[in-house]
Design a protein that fits this description.
Strand order of the largest sheet: 3-5-1-6
Shape: elongated
Number of helices: 7
Largest sheet: 4 strands, antiparallel
Oligomer: single chain
CATH architecture of the largest domain: 2-Layer Sandwich
Structural class: alpha+beta
């Protein structure tokens, strides 16, 4: 980039809660990459040039932070600040209940030697705006359970390429395949090359499970109460095992964990001992039933 009439700036979205891309997806928290894309869309009439973008850290987490590096002509910078302030006010209003600490800011950056072309920047922006994020379908069988969702999880760049990571979940395998194909189509329409990983297979609940019956009986006998049985919208190792061994009787249980896949993740330590004692009793009950 030549000349002194340009200003390089870093546009940053921060302060979001993020969370688990399965267990928290129904909470409608802000996605930093989507909010960044919306801000870039609002800035588009000022014709900034993009020279870097990144956001999110893991495919199974809702992105809490994202940033884009932009080059403005000198006369457009103050207009850009006003647009960004308007976007921040709008986002704070939209997410006042879920993400009260949301911040949208801009700071000076080093003027780059090169930028992406304007055409590439427009194509990338359209892609990020078009990619879906959030709940796609709720379960028709279990009230309040998310059946299918997609997470716009990560975006990273270097001088030559931009890579976008997404994550699809569903308790119904065919529905998961469909939303993955839909996301892939949006990426391909933008000219992207799409690479798919296996992910977690769908795992539909089995309320007639023998293992579930035994676990409920053991819990009731040990603690004098009925356990809460529920399905969750999250990838579990049981899904992988069930995919390799169809018909395998499976349940999943463990100690209390909060804030999964976020800096606030923690385990309730007293629940670990309680879980381990329950596990031993369930194994004894299974052994006795088969004896």
């Amino acid at each position: 980039v030549s000349g002194s009439d340009h200003s390089a700036m870093t546009l940053r979205v921060s302060g979001l809660k993020g969370g688990h891309s399965g267990g928290d997806i129904h909470l409608d928290r802000g996605n930093a990459i989507k909010l960044l894309a919306r801000t870039l869309h609002a800035l588009a009439p000022l014709s900034p040039l993009l020279f870097g973008i990144q956001g999110g850290s893991k495919r199974n987490a809702i992105p809490r932070e994202a940033e884009a590096k932009l080059l403005f002509s000198g006369k457009q910078l103050e207009k850009a600040r006003a647009v960004i302030a308007d976007c921040e006010r709008a986002f704070k209003n939209e997410y006042r209940a879920t993400d009260p600490d949301l911040r949208l800011g801009i700071e000076a950056a080093k003027v780059p030697d090169t930028t992406y072309t304007a055409a590439f920047g427009k194509k990338l922006l359209r892609c990020l705006m078009a990619l879906p994020h959030g709940v796609i379908r709720m379960s028709a069988d279990i009230p309040g359970l998310v059946e299918t969702s997609t997470n716009l999880a990560t975006v990273v760049s270097d001088e030559q390429t931009v890579a976008i990571g997404t994550n699809q979940r569903s308790s119904v395998e065919s529905a998961k395949q469909y939303i993955a194909q839909s996301v892939g189509a949006a990426l391909q329409l933008s000219g992207a090359r799409v690479r798919r990983s296996d992910g977690y297979p769908g795992w539909q609940p089995d309320t007639s499970s023998t293992l579930l019956r035994i676990c409920k009986q053991v819990y009731n006998k040990k603690y004098g109460a009925e356990p809460e049985i529920k399905a969750i919208h999250a990838g579990l190792e049981c899904g992988i095992l069930g995919g390799k061994y169809p018909g395998l009787d499976m349940i999943s249980f463990g100690p209390t964990i909060t804030g999964a896949h976020s800096p606030d993740e923690r385990v309730h330590i007293p629940a670990v001992k309680k879980f381990y004692e329950l596990l031993k009793d369930v194994l004894r009950a299974l052994a006795n039933e088969r004896a």
